[in-house]
Amino acid sequence: MQVGSFLQQLDPSHLTAPHRSLPRAVRCWSEEQLTNQLQVPVLKSRDTEAKKKGGLLCDLVLEQDNHHLNSRSPVHVWGYFFDCMESERSQRMGNACMPLKRIAYFLCLLSALLLTEGKKPAKPKCPAVCTCTKDNALCENARSIPRTVPPDVISLLFTSNSFDVISDDAFIGLPHLEYLFIENNNIKSISRHTFRGLKSLIHLSLANNNLQTLPKDIFKGLDSLTNVLFFRDLRGNSFNCDCKLKWLVEWLGHTNATVEDIYCEGPPEYKKRKINSLSPKDFDCIITEFAKSQDLPYQSLSIDVFSYMNDEYVVIAQPFTGKCIFLEWDHVEKTFRNYDNITGTSTVVCKPIVIETQLYVIVAQLFGGSHIYKRDSFANKFIKIQDIEILKIRKPNDIETFKIENNWYFVVADSSKAGFTTIYKWNGNGFYSHQSLHAWYRDTDVEYLEIARTPQILRTPHLILSSSSQRPVIYQWNKATQLFINQTDIPNMEDVYAVKHFSVKGDVYICLTRFIGDSKVMKWGGSSFQDIQRMPSRGSMVFQPLQINNYQYAILGSDYSFTQVYNWDAEKAKFVKFQEINVQAPRSFTHVSINKRNFLFASSFKGNTQIYKHVIVDLSA
């Protein structure tokens, strides 16, 4: 409000009334009142003496913020002081003092208003690089987004500017902005919160820049309005249609915005393809990795996982301490902790088997014989119930458990010159020797699997025995005799240390481990296994396939190099290199799934046992 217009609104009677009758915005004080009220010195006129009557101080109080205009200064406005002493002159003048008081009120008020006028905030000026009208602003040749654009603009255009990055909150303080055009620049990057606060925006153009991608959620909070018209033009950019832009494809699929056709510049398979025509299914943005989770401070050979009493457990064979260490999952600390142990001598395998609700553990040892333990739930400990005949099992190297026609079996691969690989069967009270196989062949590994000889025949149980003295031998289950019969061997695969199998879409594959040379992946063709792939081995004693959710892996350990993790490529129908992990002298890899978490246990003959967490990463997030 101008000073003149405000004074014109005053009733002349205010000038003759006592100071309490002045307008509400004005207060008048005596010198003593003001000094006591504000506790600051007051500027006095030279005529002020000890006797003062009618002396007034006036200040203007801003009603909106209740703040004294002159509160920042210790010196306050001293209007005018008139001394109306009861002198002979004053007695002769009678009420002559009254006009002077009126003038004092007026001048006091005028002084306050002038100060108020000077304190009003100035309106933001149009930036030097912009041309502004009441509602519009056009900015050219700017090095950055100006921060002093008038707040009332409705339309804002940036063109032919030199900046290439737009940061967060670039347009804050423009609550009325409806049309934003950032066109014909060299913009390469826009931050996620660039447009934050533009609640009134109904049209946005980013045409003819150098954008390759847009951050996810960049339009969050903008497209919640009704009938929004974002992206009338995104043309003229170099969008790379990879996982970082997957969110835009999803957004285009459900937004109400009107969008002109925009095209991909990359990758090559999508070049010149309309982004509007892409589907989220066109993007393969989920990757996985094995991340180190926990170290166990001991060496190990075999590692097995089992379910018992509605909980998951892991059992680890420690060759140097001779123990079977049982681990359970700590639901509070989110780590594996010790549960129990079985103490023995030179333990190489601790194989659990749960029959109905009873847990048994077959403990294979290089010295002192091998034994079978039972978990006593009342005593809450393991009790030895049976010895395994030492004449047949002299140097056990591997154990496999399986079930055929409701009967439980386990087979021990014996690697001694005078031993027998032997199958044991559960008879209700214990395990007894059922069949001996492959005598004196120094077997190092045994694998149980089911394969079909012809497409019309159901899969039947088979055993594959690996030996250091001959090629792997395949045994087939004979239902009539309830025995395994030697069927065939795997040609051209001498010196195979171990064989492990896996399935993909109903097809059966095997991974064959060689210490030096080439390890192999082979596929069952109906009557024999056929070569699919070779991997170079550098001191390998384990080539373990394992499946985690929908991901099929194969892990090739190495004593002389990094362990190689391979991932199955469904299109190529073979494994591709995926990741390297560092494990000293690995001997087994085991998948453990607990509480929707997936872990990889890696045993080590020379170092710490390692636990890796299987991590799924969404590249589009």
From TrEMBL:
EAR repeat ranges are: 289-331, 335-377, 381-428, 430-479, 483-526, 528-570, 574-616
Give the signal peptide, or none: none
What PROSITE patterns is this protein classified in?
EAR
Q: Does the keyword Signal apply?
A: yes
Question: Which Pfam families does UniProt cross-reference here?
Answer: EPTP, LRR_8
What are the UniProt keywords, alphabetically?
Cytoplasm, Glycoprotein, Leucine-rich repeat, Repeat, Secreted, Signal, Synapse
Localisation per UniProt entry? Cytoplasm; Secreted; Synapse
Q: What is this protein called?
A: Leucine-rich glioma-inactivated protein 1
Origin species: Erinaceus europaeus
* Native organism taxonomy: Eukaryota, Metazoa, Chordata, Craniata, Vertebrata
